[in-house]
Amino acid sequence: MIPVAKIDEVPNFGKKVVSVSGREILLVNIKGAVFACENECPHQGTPLTAAIVKDGYIACPRHGYRFSLANGRCTDHPEFTLKTFPVQISGDDILIDPA
Ligand code: FES
For 19-39, what is each residue's pLDDT tens digit? Predict the structure, then answer.
């Protein structure tokens, strides 16, 4: 687990992109629960910074595929899975496991 941001850098219902080992990772805060996923849609690579987050899902702004923030699965298009990363909060630090 490595620290990637402070909790107050990702506001409630907000997002923040961090760079870890040259890879862009998107942090999403839903009512204090922080999720981490690749900032690249597995369908055609669109960045997810402008994605809509609702009911535990993130919807790609390009074609609307919805991915679970918990496990990256796309129910409507199961051949595509968004890479997600374990998140831990320690004090005011957000830590992720980028493996
Ligand atoms: S590029 Fe994301 S749904 Fe098509």
Answer: 998 999 999 999 989 999 999
State which ligand 1 atom lies nearest to the alpha carbon of 42: 2
**Domain with 81 in it:** 2-96
- Domains contained in the chain, number: 1
The reply to whether the predicted model has a pTM over 0.85 is yes
Q: Which residues pair with 2 in a beta bridge?
A: 96
Q: What is the dihedral of CA 44, 36, 6, 21, to 10 degrees?
A: -60
Query: In CATH, what number is assigned to the domain containing residue 90?
Result: 2.102.10.10
The alpha carbon of 66 and the centre of ligand 1 are apart by a number of angstroms equal to: 9
Name the closest-CA residue to atom 1, ligand 1: 44
